[in-house]
UniProtKB/TrEMBL annotation:
Tagged with keyword Transmembrane: yes
Domain CHK kinase-like: 1-190
Superkingdom, taxonomy of origin: Eukaryota
InterPro entries: CHK_kinase-like, EcKL, Kinase-like_dom_sf
Record-given protein name: CHK kinase-like domain-containing protein
Pfam families xrefs: EcKL
The organism of origin for this protein: Petrolisthes manimaculis
TM regions (residue ranges): 251-272
Entry annotated with the keyword Cell division: no
Record's keyword terms, sorted: Membrane, Transmembrane, Transmembrane helix
């Protein structure tokens, strides 16, 4: 497994994209070829909307934190401050809309991993004279805990913005997107389930519509991954992986997590969730605003500058 604090190079990125495209294509073909309504047969994968309030609340907090951090640098980020502050509600609304599968351009839904990025990929690299070299031969996906039936572009946006650098995206994004679309198309065709009205132009329209999701979720992921305080975000001192306790914890999580996410999606609980999320991110946001972690600041502001250049911060 690669270091989650490091970004992928192009060969590893392309292999991961191939794997992701095949996952999406095979699940779609299975649903069609077996003549089943996937979510009726497997209702456990119909809970994507339950986790969306968590995403929306989290990125709103991070967005405010980025504005605060930019304010600390005076005129350096003046161009960002004006547009971020004035268009905040519009940007967050576009983020919320990107999570939905109701847009006319969302022609494809399938089984999405939900947390597809460097930390959940295990690569097998080539060897030369018994020593490993950084040339990938195979990849395995792990951590399927939030797999849903939804728009596959959200997986792709999440991966691209959480696992690659701005320079790699600048130089190779077109190649990466063509690779995904080609692998997806070839796989669905080979499985007898070609997707109508999903030419590369249609695919790119959906990429642009959901790109705000990638940018903002990338900032959230970077904050947790690159901050020193974020190292303890999901850490537990009482981690159980085997035995009776592990089975109890597993089933409690399967039962309680959807209930909790559903409750927090209701208006009366929204304020409670917001306060809880603010507390969770408090130390990480303060670290961002302190400008003492060069890697954190560089990665976060690379994403926001890129979003600005792509017009994603406009209303």
């Amino acid at each position: 497994m690669l270091n989650k604090r490091e970004s992928l190079d192009l060969p590893h990125t392309l292999m991961a994209v191939d794997s992701l495209a095949r996952l999406h294509a095979v699940s779609l073909a299975f649903s069609r070829n077996h003549n089943v309504h996937f979510l009726k047969k497997y209702p456990a994968f119909n809970t994507a909307s339950c986790i969306d309030p968590f995403y929306i609340a989290s990125v709103a907090i991070i967005y405010d934190g980025v504005i605060r951090a930019a304010e600390q640098k005076g005129n350096q980020y003046k161009h960002l401050l004006a547009i971020m502050a004035s268009n905040k509600e519009a940007v967050l609304q576009k983020f919320s809309e990107a999570l939905k599968n109701t847009n006319e351009s969302s022609k494809v839904t399938c089984l999405a991993h939900g947390d597809f990025w460097t930390n959940n990929l295990m690569f097998r690299n080539s060897e030369n004279n018994g020593k490993e070299v950084q040339q990938p031969q195979d990849v395995m996906l792990i951590d399927w805990g939030i797999t849903f039936w939804r728009n596959p572009l959200l997986d792709l946006q999440y991966f691209i913005h959480c696992s690659t650098t701005r320079n790699l995206r600048k130089d190779h994004l077109g190649e990466i997107l063509h690779r995904y679309h080609s692998t997806f198309t070839v796989t669905t065709n080979d499985l007898g389930s070609p997707v109508d009205n999903w030419q590369f132009e249609d695919f790119m329209a959906e990429w642009r519509r959901t790109q705000v999701f990638g940018s903002l979720i990338g900032m959230m992921n970077t904050l947790v991954t690159m901050s020193e305080s974020g190292k303890n975000f999901n850490k537990s001192d009482d981690l159980q992986t085997t035995g009776v306790r592990a089975h109890i914890d597993y089933w409690m999580a399967r039962i309680m997590a959807p209930i909790m996410f559903f409750m927090f999606s209701l208006p009366p609980f929204a304020f409670v969730m917001r306060r809880a999320m603010e507390k969770s991110f408090e130390d990480m946001v303060e670290e961002l605003c302190s400008w003492k972690n060069d890697t954190l600041q560089f990665r976060v502001f690379d994403l926001i500058e890129e979003a600005f250049e792509n017009g994603l911060l406009e209303s």
